[in-house]
Design brief:
This protein is of the alpha+beta class. It is 27% helix and 26% strand. The protein contains 3 helices and 4 strands. β3 and β4 form a beta hairpin. The relative contact order is 0.12.
Length: 86
């Protein structure tokens, strides 16, 4: 599967102290994928998803990234029974 190469490939995100979490997603049937990044603030998101990042994605995948920055308003952790307003 294509996603397995992600686990073997070093990522700048793994050493990024600003990045809290990243989730990869991929639809093999439609051959589309992406990631959801969890940043502590919009400033860090903007810093790491600037022009250099956009050019890197374009060179790797042949298409520019579609970036949408959203504010998290509620965090739900079902395993710990946690519901918190952010």
């Amino acid at each position: 599967m294509r996603w397995r190469c992600i686990a073997r490939r070093p990522s700048r995100g793994w050493a990024n102290k600003d990045l809290i979490e990243k989730y990869y997603f991929f639809d093999e049937e439609k051959s589309i994928g992406g990631g959801v990044y969890i940043w502590p603030s919009r400033a860090e998101a903007a810093k790491w998803h600037g022009e250099e990042y956009k050019q890197k994605v374009l060179s790797i995948y042949g298409a520019p990234p579609r970036i949408q920055i959203l504010d998290a308003i509620i965090h739900v952790d079902l395993h710990r029974g946690l519901l918190e307003e952010l």
